[in-house]
Amino acid sequence: MTAIMETLKLLILTAGIVVFNLTHLASAKPSWRSDILDKIGRKGFITMHAIGSSLAVALIIYGYYERDFAPLYQPALWAANFNQAIMLIALWLVASEGFNGHMKRIVKAPALAGTAIWAFGHLLANGDVHSVILFGGFLIYAFIGLFFKRHHQPPETAYRIKSDGIALIVGIVAYSAIGLAHPYFTGISVL
């Protein structure tokens, strides 16, 4: 791939991360979300979010795949195994967002915490420029989102241990499915 094409792919990937972060962080702070909803309404917000997310995913996929490998650093020998081990925790946290379990009470924003763990683990295991932009961008998104949610008090609800168990099962199923599919969408076998 020519240097110009490689640079273009990096710019497209970076643009995808920026669009993703702006689209998702626009509603991270409750007062921002209220302002946006007041200005464009719920349908407008959902439309804006869907278009922004779709554009971001398209840019990220195009910018990340079919790239030349350009190393920035050599990952530690243990990094891939460590990443594989923490992915179950990350997926359990992400799944916990959809259930009223104690994990959601303790972690307040489990999907963002899971995203941070996923991105951090992948930064440890991948040292190329494209991976650093991709996973670093998601890590920045997760940290900013967690910062805004740190004082957020969700409505009082009955937290159930059963919900934590269901979220764990969903996390295990997702972990297994992603582990099996990983070589097909990344070219890297993790099992």
- Major β-sheet annotation: none
Helix content: over 70%
Secondary-structure element pattern, one letter each: HHHHHHH
Proportion of residues in extended strands? under 5%
Rg to the nearest angstrom?
Answer: 18 Å
> Total domains, how many?
2
**Averaged pLDDT, please?**
89
Q: What class do helices, strands and sheet pairing give? A: mainly alpha
Overall 3D form: globular
Number of helices: 7
* Uncertain residue segments: none
How many E strands? 0
What is the end-to-end distance? 30 Å
Polypeptide structure, described:
The protein has 191 residues and is mainly alpha-helical. It folds into 2 domains: 1-68; 70-191. It has helices spanning 3-25, 30-64, 79-96, 102-107, 110-125, 129-149, 161-186. Helix 1 packs antiparallel against helix 2, helix 2 runs antiparallel to helix 6 (129-149) and helix 3 (79-96) runs antiparallel to helix 5 (110-125). The mean pLDDT is 89.
